[in-house]
């Protein structure tokens, strides 16, 4: 059995180079195959005992109820369908051997396992597993019908039992996978689309804590999630993983929310009283804190990885330049490494997408007049700066992907910052307020000019703080 899994591992590496298979996956395949073989062997003994106790019940009918395809369905949910298809061939060969080298049971196991693996592609709801089990049951019925027709025993009483038990075996496959998937997720640390959907619930404990303690960060994360999910489909990334990772990418800010500008509503900027080195340490710490909190909450390794990579090794330019202005090279030389995030750089498309969406959404808040042309210029500038800094060197994003990402970001941000029509006041309000408006307009015109100039300066200053100037 170990030899078969090793052959499966090497065949997968050579045939499906785009699929990352590691030692954990090989161990999962070995454990699953071993459990299915033991389960089948035990089920055969039970079926023989039941058939001996009830002579009217044929032994073959009992054997058809064994849910062999559950292993292939589980592998498809936890890993991917292509590895599950290879697993189906291996487990069907072993099943044929266990069923006394009978060809019909090899065919029965193979067809059921292939349909089971294919039926749960992109499973997002646990009820999908039940539906897939029913489809496996129908496949079993068709396979049994064909086998009995070839054997010339189609119109017999045993065929009725065969078909009934075959369909029941398919339903059992769905129920078994529903029960075992959470267990394997916890034991092996896999994050399925089903778990991602559960984490995407905005009532989850960590997101509730985020909205209470850091409401500005929560709103920022939701917008980043929208940007990432809408763009992921265009570049063949996982939209659900991108969105959920974006929701949790800044949970580390929960520990010190008031040190981040999006949460400083009506309060003074705490960084004004701190040295640049201390401010940078606080900003850098939110990545480490986020990774630790994600591990404690068991968010799953893919999300933990994206949290740790969502800033890459980028420079906190604002505080770095502030430190350089105060630098005394002889006593306290400023080291650029102290003002860079520890990384690593994004390793996947989803991580790179979250990094870009995070930077673009933050920069969009600094635009004094977010017109479509200004949004487009800002998006291209941010993406170009990140690309030139080498933050995307280790992920799979291509120049074509970056172009698609820019288009999607422009479209979504333009929709968010669209202008509304200034609806006219009712006639009775116009006559009452006309005199007051004339007096106010004279004052507001001058104030608006001063405010636009001030907003522009603040916007440039915030861009520098973000390291995007």
Task: Characterize the structure shown.
With 469 residues, this protein is mostly helical. It has 2 domains: 2-190, Orthogonal Bundle (Arp2/3 complex 21 kDa subunit ARPC3), CATH 1.10.1760; 201-466, Hypothetical protein af1432 (Orthogonal Bundle), CATH 1.10.3210. Helix content is 69%, strand content 0%. It contains 19 helices and no strands. The chain has helices spanning 2-15, 23-53, 59-63, 70-78, 81-98, 103-118, 127-151, 157-188, 193-199, 205-213, 215-232, 239-248, 276-296, 301-309, 317-325, 349-364, 372-388, 399-416, 427-466. Helix 4 (70-78) packs parallel to helix 8 and helix 14 (301-309) packs across helix 16. The longest helix is centred in the last third of the chain and has 40 residues, at 427-466. The radius of gyration is 30 Å and the shape is elongated. The mean pLDDT is 85.
